[in-house]
Amino acid sequence: MPTINILISILSLAISCTSMGQTDRVYKTTHFKIFYTALDDTNVKEIADSLENSYPKITSNLQSGDLPIVNVHFYENIADLNKVFPNFPIWAVGQAISVSEIHMISPNDSKQDYQTMIRNTKHEFVHCVSMKINSTISNNPRWLWESVAIYEANLPWDPRMLSYLVNQKPPSLQKLNEFSNPNIYEVGYFIAQFIVETHGTTALKSLIQNNGNLKDTLNIDDEEFTKQWFAFVKKKYGL
Questions:
Q1: Which of the chain's termini has less CB crowding within 10 Å, N or C?
Q2: Is the same domain home to 164 and 125?
């Protein structure tokens, strides 16, 4: 039975969401329930359709099966999001907190790029899918957690614009696991792309299932894995 503190936290969250207009606008699709604000009145269907259209591909690629209905909560700006999550990272725009719960700044926030925020919402949905496969995968390890989401949400960088890659110095997995190091958001796409294009989507799912155990899935250690994904990037992108 829930403790008093848990009940108070749930009640506080509900009150906060209601006060910010999070519960009076709801748009439902087959797989999502979107709680949105006045900012999203004109294009909530477009946002919802984009998520819904991505659902079959992402769940198929990761072989997750169906998820429970995913609740997506949009906030007008970072200040409103911080009212619900006071310790939210300053650099973040959204967070998947469970297999069925996402909290995001609205794609229509004037300080955000609309299309990028649509992809960021898909990114958080991929985290939900990963948690469906393995409930312990959240940032465990961080390099895999983010690589899968960046790749499936199609958020690539140009590797030729990353000086450390141009200088033939790919970051180690240990570095990519550090929360203070943003490099995973720049190279995560290529790491997952390497896994999929050389070992298949089954290997990607296997790594999610075993929390990035490279020895069990690919029979290589961290150092060799880094060498191989970087060699793949050099050949594919002409570094």
A1: N
A2: no
Rounded to 10 deg, the angle between the 183-199 and 201-209 helix axes is 120
The CATH number of the domain where 18 resides is what?
Answer: 3.40.30.160
- Cis peptide bond N-terminal to 171, omega within 30: no
Same domain, 103 and 122: yes
- 95-104: pLDDT as tens digits: 999 999 999 9
207, two tokens:
């790594």
DSSP H helices, 85-221, are 114-133, 142-152, 163-166, 173-176, 183-199, 201-209, 214-218
20 and 116 housed in the same domain: yes
Neighbours of 28 (CB within 10 A): 10
pLDDT along the chain (239 residues), means of 10: 38 41 80 97 97 98 97 95 85 93 97 95 98 98 98 93 96 95 95 98 97 98 98 95
Q: Do 126 and 40 fall within a single domain?
A: yes
Instruction: Kindly state whether residues 207 and 127 are assigned to the same domain.
Output: no
| pTM for this prediction | 0.89
Where among 81, 110, 133 does a domain terminate?
Answer: 133
Helices (H) and strands (E) in the chain, counts: 11, 5
* Sequence-ordered list of residues with C-beta below 8 angstroms from that of 33, at least 6 positions apart, any chain: 26, 27, 69, 70, 71, 72
CA pair distance 61, 90, nearest whole angstrom:
31
8 Å CB contact between 138 and 190: no
The residue segments making up the domain with residue 109 are: 4-133
Q: 103: part of which helix (H) or strand (E)?
A: strand 101-105
